Amino acid sequence: MPTTLSPLRFSVCVETLFNDKPFEQRLEYVADMGFPAFEFWTRQGKDMNITLALKLALHLEVSAFVGSSASLVDPTQRQQFLDDMLHAASLAFDLSCANIIVSSGPALPNVTRAEQRRHIVEVLREAAATAADADTCLVLKPLNQRDHPGTFLSSSTEGFAIVREVNSPNVKLCFDLYHQQISEGNLTQRMTEHLDLIGHLQVADVPGRHEPGTGEINYEHIFGVLRELGYHGFVGLEYTPMVDARASLRAVRALSQ
């Protein structure tokens, strides 16, 4: 008898989809289309009390948001990052949000790569306790050098090594397939071998960061692999649609069946 695979849990990024509507109205569109969760970038310009009320009323989950723009490699920004994490963890607790997204920041000139990496590990270890108290996870997101020239962390291989070194269940990687296809490729093997270290996935196609199915990444295969692996986290739909947002979301859902 064939095994029934669990459907993937998609999270709609309301910064890139339905972004012609007021923020709160975007959540209604997500719920109307039957998606279980949404994610956003920062809290700036948004009323989080209204967001929480709508989340509850619409029976949605919050999969992720960006917790800080402070650099993880720069010691002079360490306290700013830790302060940001206190505020972000408090919001994550209120929203029952699974993940807080952080990135490395730009590489520092005249500082060795080893020293900058050491600072990432140290500051994430310190922030991990804050995340644990809020029952959330800090997810470190590598960014590609083409779109983010000069960023310190582009490699998921190095990202996974950092997560292992931090050694906390509350610190994992945000594996964005758009960024990693540009940076390094070999997506299936990287996900398969490190699934236990991935806290959040984000998807978009290459080129253009458009919806899955419009570019070079075989997302039908990717989604099938994730289902076979029993991936239980969220798959964030962080893309710029080439067609109507509703139509694009229906196409992505069909691709995952």
What does this structure look like?
By secondary structure, this protein is α/β, with parallel strands linked by helices. The protein has a single domain, classed as Divalent-metal-dependent TIM barrel enzymes (TIM Barrel, Alpha-Beta Barrel). It has helices spanning 23-32, 48-58, 78-95, 113-133, 156-166, 177-183, 187-193, 219-229, 245-255; strands at residues 9-13, 37-39, 61-66, 99-102, 137-140, 171-176, 198-203, 234-237.
* Share of helical residues: 40-55%
CATH architecture: Alpha-Beta Barrel
What's the total helix number? 9
What distance separates the N and C termini? 19 Å
Structure, briefly:
The chain has 257 residues and is of the alpha/beta class. It has helices spanning 23-32, 48-58, 78-95, 113-133, 156-166, 177-183, 187-193, 219-229, 245-255, and strands at residues 9-13, 37-39, 61-66, 99-102, 137-140, 171-176, 198-203, 234-237. It has an 8-stranded parallel beta barrel, surrounded by 5 helices.
Strands, helices and their partners?
Layout (H helix, E strand, L loop, with lengths): L8 E5 L9 H10 L4 E3 L8 H11 L2 E6 L11 H18 L3 E4 L10 H21 L3 E4 L15 H11 L4 E6 H7 L3 H7 L4 E6 L15 H11 L4 E4 L7 H11 L2
Parallel strand pairs: 1-2, 1-8, 2-3, 3-4, 4-5, 5-6, 6-7, 7-8
